[in-house]
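Hi all, posting the design record for the shared folder.

TITLE: backbone redesign
STEP: 1 of 1
STRUCTURE INPUT:
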């Protein structure tokens, strides 16, 4: 069992930056593929970014490419999402997720989410 806790959300003006963190307990994250998702009010949860177990491969939604960076620190059991050039449409609850599968189809473990609000 993996417990995930997100932090770092908040209110920021358009063009600003935030760094989200997701700390894990219960298991070491080094054996898990990790992802970030977001859910805006009244909308479905959507994929934002993912990183493989070694950190050597990353994947991004088109809407955040070039602005967001996912990274991981296995020694700290933490995954990060650096968000730059934020836009009002980035407003959402952001969730981190983890899965031990070699190929992830559905993430097994989820955090509770952290709110990000971008004002225009």
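Okay, here is what came back for every position:
SEQUENCE:
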């Amino acid at each position: 069992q993996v417990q995930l806790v997100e932090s770092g959300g908040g209110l920021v003006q358009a063009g600003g930056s935030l760094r989200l963190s997701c700390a894990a307990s219960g298991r070491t994250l080094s054996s898990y593929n990790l992802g970030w998702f977001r859910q805006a009010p009244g909308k479905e949860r959507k994929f934002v970014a993912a990183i493989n177990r070694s950190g050597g491969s990353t994947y991004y939604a088109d809407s955040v490419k070039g602005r967001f960076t996912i990274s991981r620190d296995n020694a700290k059991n933490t995954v990060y999402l650096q968000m730059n050039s934020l836009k009002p449409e980035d407003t959402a609850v952001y969730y981190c997720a983890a899965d031990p599968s070699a190929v992830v189809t559905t993430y097994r473990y989820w955090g509770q989410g952290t709110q990000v609000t971008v004002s225009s």
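COMMENT: The mean pLDDT is 95.
Let me know if anyone wants the other runs.
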